[in-house]
Amino acid sequence: MGHKPRKEMIAETRAKLVAAARHAFGSVGYAEASMDDFTASAGLTRGALYHHFGDKKGLLQAVIAEIDAEMLARLKIVSARADTLWQGFVDECTAYIEMALEPEIQRIVLRDGPAVLGDPSQWPSQNECIRSMSENLQKLRDEGTIVAVDPEAAARVVSGASLHAAQWIANSDDPEATSKKAVKAFNLLLEGLLKQGRRIGRPQAPAEMDKSPA
Amino acid sequence: MGHKPRKEMIAETRAKLVAAARHAFGSVGYAEASMDDFTASAGLTRGALYHHFGDKKGLLQAVIAEIDAEMLARLKIVSARADTLWQGFVDECTAYIEMALEPEIQRIVLRDGPAVLGDPSQWPSQNECIRSMSENLQKLRDEGTIVAVDPEAAARVVSGASLHAAQWIANSDDPEATSKKAVKAFNLLLEGLLKQGRRIGRPQAPAEMDKSPA
DNA sequence: AGTTTGACATACGCTCCGTATGTCATTATT
DNA sequence: AATAATGACATACGGAGCGTATGTCAAACT
């Protein structure tokens, strides 16, 4: 039985390192994660890490890139199966909030990432989720659903809002109740983007997710 | 010539440590700031630091509390001199964005703080700015200007939006242009909170800051 | 005056990171 | 096919930084 080809072994090593780091970063945080420890847990040493990723930051970048790609894929699925563009956009935002509730994403991508690598808007992965959101907003603008606004600008403030909503929910004593309040407030903000008259009347009671404008 | 009373000397020492740490954290970041270095720059040693603040995190907390207090004071001034509650709220948000552009605030409070101390919503200083914003929103709701929404929820998503707007602006190649786009998008979101009909008609051209509803 | 308290400095050990070097298998060369 | 060269890792070493344990000295107390 032949050994696996070289390329595969290398890819496997990289994958093992990324997986081990992802677990360590996600559970104890970047600063507390010992390189000796988590490389050992992958059956390797720091030698491999420095060889493949240059340094600890480089590995964090790789981990974030991986998570970011997964997030993007999930978001695409969500927005693709909506009936209208607006509904897809709203659904995508909601999904974004839900993803930001996951501890791994919150810790690695949303907290340690910016602290270690600087502002996400400068990342090479360019926060793919923002791009996706921008594209949707661009279409909504062309379609005439939302007012004239810079798509990227809107995408950034919206993602900021959803991100904080998620963090608030995640750290809340009663995530269920908090989630309802946060999502409602968030949806109100989103409606600020809609053109005059497209906004539907809202009952005072906790409303269902708004149906998209025809 | 008498030496200063004991209490004053101690307070002075604490202040010197906080000031030195604030400068170090703000310029090179929390992780890169050497305790030996910045305590020495204050004419002290780590002994004083551990005595007064327990550890490096404790000092970061003190620094953030100080900055937070300053931010709150500035925001109160801004909102106090507005003609209407809504205008005050909008002004306060704008001021929040502008403050978030300051490197020291951005780095210490918005990036390193959450990474080291966890989610700001759990901080003892409780993010005083959020509280202030919540109070304003509560009044706006009582007044009937905005729709029924949980004030804290709205405050959190709004601060998240403004924060990301600020980071985007701060790291932009052309802060002037980016600022215009970001603030416009942000103001649109804010209008989502207004009651039906209170929303003013918006021209397509980059609008001035909206005048408050009567 | 003697005792106690507490504000700070000094000293020590430990962990962790980055680099420099070594080793062995795979690939390229002739 | 034999040798050279590359590259994927492991090992070894040095340095920095942090936390703690201990020491010192002045101020407050009795």
TrEMBL record, chains A, B:
Record keywords: DNA-binding
Superkingdom to which the source organism belongs: Bacteria
SUPFAM superfamilies: Homeodomain-like
Residue spans binding DNA: 34-53
Residue span(s) of domain HTH tetR-type: 11-71
One Pfam family cited in the UniProt record for this chain: TetR_N
Listed PANTHER family: HTH-TYPE TRANSCRIPTIONAL REGULATOR RUTR, HTH-TYPE TRANSCRIPTIONAL REGULATOR UIDR
Designated name of the protein: TetR family transcriptional regulator
